[in-house]
Fold this protein.
Amino acid sequence: MTTSKRTRIFFRLEMSEALRSRWLFFTFAVYLSTFGAFVWLGLRESSVLGFTGMSRVVLNLSNALVLTLPLVALVATNQSVVRARANGFFELMLAQPCTRGEWLRAAITSRLVVLVAPIVVLLGFALGYGAGDADALLVPLVVRSLAVALALAVAFVGLGFLISSVSKSPERATVLGLLAWLGASMLHDFALVGTLLRWKVPAHLVFAIAASNPVEAARIGILSAIDPELSVLGPVGFWLANAYGPHLALVIGIGWPLTLGALATMLAHKRLTRMDLVG
């Protein structure tokens, strides 16, 4: 049996577990509730920088997913390794002609499918619903939002598996996952604002601090669709538009989360191959 076939078997096993535990339905319900709320808000008469109708809905939904997706990704992954050690799954797996890397690749792929598939469905629905409108911003905004969401999912799925691989207990994995989400989505903002209020920090340094956080990088990638001059970001936006431009901002918003996710996945794989898998 080849490596790819064993990986596919593990993938089917993980997807079956996701369907049994209703994880796919849970993620879809979370995204759908967010989508429904912003449909009501986005279809009102007011507009934001030329974004009206479905394009405004997709824009607001994308900004909401920047906060929602990391939390769902961490909750879906931070228990994977530590729970498999505790319930004897790894002990059973070690008795089979397979490798730990094959299981990890299948587990990561299944989590990405569970996280991203509902977003594809919802954005596809928005694209189909608004296809009859004369909205030139809708198609590029949907493509941009999907790319940013996928990059963010890769980043936090990798971080979730890394957290799970270094945690000694499910409780510690849960705490570390919540701290990672708070640090990425909330505490980072407060720390950045506090730094700006306390010291006069150069614009390029502010951008570097913000872009080091995958959530902030994703926000920059999405906000670059609103205004090519990035005036919504204030002085940092003007500096970013003049120094790099909105296209490079999008590259950073997609490239850095993908890079971070790849690095976290490599570290998780390295930890998984060296640790004692029998808890």
Summary: Residues 3-274 form one domain. The mean pLDDT is 79.
